[in-house]
């Protein structure tokens, strides 16, 4: 891959997912290997304007304060031989929502799992999906993004929410298998048996273009793996069950650097990406997080206590929405 091909690839992937990728720094390599640093256009912060005209320029419609210190960063380094370049992902996350106008239509190639990208839900479909969530949370949902329904929809949704594009579903599956293997003994305790962990590894290890029912994503099983594997806050929303998952083993960074994503389960068979506003209540933390988290991870919960209390208050005492991992379907 040449330098130009690398830059074009990064920009195309960014565009598919609603992000604009720009060249942050370029080094021709006079004293070291040639390299190029790519970042999100929202990276960095604005310097204090020296005069009123500059302030007015920043606040013009369409050029308003877009920079929010987004940490996304990719570095390309030229190899010593020929014109090939290697890619290193320094940070693959964005700390802001994708631009709605950059969502593109899905490719309709049913033969390859890597051709479909995230699709903005049409108005009538969004209204249909919005009813798949508790009415108390609906006003806080600012967007719902659908993914291809091929049995990988849960992993496609997570890949899209992490900024990989939904065609990164295979990478998500691989990452979660790695998470299970790396902390095998701890997950045996959390899930209750070696056999259950083996079942999860089997379920995750599917990379065909279509996944049968027993290879679909299941929650709460994957909730702890996703939150811990990617060091993120995962909010799971559905009409029957709403739970928040936190990393089990890491020290919480400053709240400003938390990444919170929301995964919706709709129509009892399909996952979608959900985007919440910044004031949205969020469901209570999964019980097993408190039972199996490291002591160093306790700080993850603190910034969300008010939003969790707001969620509980909004549901009331007579709600049929479960806010824990295990529910009795006969009672819902």
Reconstruct the topology from this structure.
Elements: H1 3-16, E1 21-27, E2 35-40, H2 52-58, E3 73-78, E4 85-91, E5 119-120, H3 123-130, H4 135-138, E6 141-146, H5 153-161, H6 169-182, H7 184-191, H8 194-204, H9 221-230, E7 233-237, E8 243-245, E9 260-266, E10 270-276, H10 287-292, H11 305-315
Parallel strand pairs: 7-9
Antiparallel strand pairs: 1-2, 2-3, 3-4, 5-6, 6-10, 7-8, 9-10
Helix pairs in contact: 5-6, 6-8, 6-9, 7-8
Describe this structure in words.
- This protein has helices at 3-16, 52-58, 123-130, 135-138, 153-161, 169-182, 184-191, 194-204, 221-230, 287-292, 305-315; strands at 21-27, 35-40, 73-78, 85-91, 119-120, 141-146, 233-237, 243-245, 260-266, 270-276.
- Strands 5-6-10-9-7-8 form a six-stranded mixed sheet. A four-stranded antiparallel sheet has the order 1-2-3-4, covered by helices on one side.
- Residues 55-65, 100-126 and 327-332 have low confidence and may be disordered.
- The protein has 332 residues and is α+β, with helices and mostly antiparallel strands.
- The termini are far apart.
- Helix 6 packs antiparallel against helix 8, helix 6 (169-182) crosses helix 9 (221-230) and helix 7 (184-191) packs across helix 8.
